[in-house]
Structure formats: structure tokens, C-alpha cells
Design brief:
Length: 346
Amino acid sequence: MLQDKITQYTEEIKAFAPSSAQEVEAFRLKFLVSKGILKNLFEEFKTVSSDEKRVLGKVLNEFKQLAENTFKDASEKFSNQNEGQTANAEGDLTLPGQGFSLGSRHPLSLVRKEIVEIFKKLGFVVAEGNEIEDDWHNFSALNFAPEHPARDMQDTFFIKKQDGNEMVLRTHTSSVQVRLMEAGKPPFRAIMPGRVYRNEAISARAHCFFHQIEGLYVDENVSFADLKQTLYHFVKELYGEDTKVRFRPSYFPFTEPSAEMDISCTICKGAGCQMCKYSGWVEILGCGMVDPNVLDNCGIDSKKYSGFAFGMGIERITNLKYEIRDLRLFSENDVRFLSQFETEII
Ligand code: PHE
């Protein structure tokens, strides 16, 4: 009987839970093709009495809907899965490869590396210290008087530890000199790059953190001539043979005598521009002979040994090299800025 068949097949379709695309295809071949069950049922429908037709017409149409919808849902499910599987498992091997962007080195890292390499060739080794320092290493051992203005809240970030002791964020890399000398015996010949902190309002020309490179050379009979010769060599290596150098007397608590070193402006070659404030010269570092008090504070015999030290800001050197005029660019991580520098090839 037609009614029984429809009931039986309806149950079969309702229980249909395919687990592969092949099962969905088998369903189609069984029910929906031109010699399939659905077609047969419609053929059989033609043969029943008109009374039965009135009842069965509706039942048969509902069955047709059920079969078609079941097939549609099932084939959609498997066609989605297939797409996913293809992409994950093999992919379309004819598609072009997906490009990914390479990172680039930060300009400060590039310049730091360049500076370190120059001094390495002169026999300097790289040393590092702590960014959170105690007063001794950042100030006292370096001959800062207790009332020295650099200790003031204006310049220094202070940190109170749980045990009540006060620490500072190092205000310069000169603290690494102290750590190095305390821990070893002369001769010392080291270059010390690192981040330093000062309590400054952030602007194009100042930042609350920046980077320095410290140099220290301690041995018997080290003289100011050695200091000058080393720094002359450094400047010519970094900025070229034509760069002029001059020293101006200065003051640092930890060096005596002390000097600041200027170079002829690398942008205008000394003619005068905005970068050198129309003077033709730019200051790039502070330096001097290590004060005997500092040597003694670090357990080094100042009667036997002497030394020189220098410290420079990496940002300043980088600005002069790449004509960067706003310090904030270094820490904002704007890819439009960063991607202009050397790409790192791994
Ligand atoms: N520490 C000094 C500064 O931060 C620089 C310096 C280092 C000067 C070593 C002399 C010797 O300005």
C-alpha cells in the first residue's frame, strides 16, 4: 500500500544521520534520481483511487519536501566540511604563497650594535648592570655629594621597597662602571649599553627613559691622550673621516678632569642648521679621567691605576644619523616609522 510505503520511508529519512559525503550521495541516488523512490511513489500515486488521492496527495507532497530538505541540509553540511578539510590538510597547491611581513630592527638597536662593534674591535667587552639600582651604585660610589641636585626628586625616579629601603631607576649607565670594578680586578676595558630613566616631561626633545652607552678603560698609565685618541677613532668610524671633533671642559662628579665632546654637525657639515641650532657643532658625549675617589670606592688602588670613562645617549647619535627630530618616535612603535630601517633577515 502506498500509505504504508510513505510511512516507512518517512521513518527511514527521519533517522538519516550521515557521517560522510558518500552517504549523502547514496541518499540522493536512492530517493531523488529519476528512477529513485520518490519518482516511483509518484508513479504509484497515479494508480490509486480518487478518494485515496485526496488524502495521499498531501502526504506524498510532505514526503517529497522532507526528502529534498533532508538532502539539502546534509549536502550543505558536508560541502562546508570539505572546504575546511581541503584548506587545512592540503590546500590548493596552485595558489600563490601567502606573504608575511618581516620585522625590522629598531633604529636604536641598529645604532647600539654599530657602536658596540667599533669598540669591540678595540678590545672592549660588553657589560650590563641593573635598571633598578641602589643609591650606592647610581650616586654615592660615583662621588655624588649627598646634596647633589641629581639626587633630587626632579630628576630621579625613586622606588620604595617593601622592606622600607629606597631604590632608584638608574639615571645613567655609569652605575655599571661601579658594578664592574667592584666585581673584578684591573685592567678593565668595557662598553656598557642600557636603558636609563629620568623624571622629565615627555616632549620631542626629552623623555622619561632613553638609552646610553658607557665606556670604561682602567689600567696602569692610562692618560687623557688615550681617551682622546679612542674617541677620535670612534667618531671617524661612526660618522666618517671628515667629521671634526672638539672637547670642552665640563664637570661630572665621577671624572676629573671632565669634558664634553662635540662633533661637527653631521646634517649640515658645520654650515649651521636646525639640528645644531645653527652653531655647526653638536654635543654627543660626556667623558673624563675616572676620579681617584671612584676607583678607591670600588676597591681599586688609585695610586697604581688610572682610567678614563665616557657616556653617550644612543638617541642623540641616532637622531644625527637618521635626521630624526622627535624622541617620541622611538617608543611609540609606529610601524610606518619602524619599517623604514633595516629588515632583519633571520
Ligand atoms: N653619566 C654621564 C651622563 O649621564 C655621562 C658620563 C659618563 C660622563 C662617563 C663622564 C664619564 O651624563
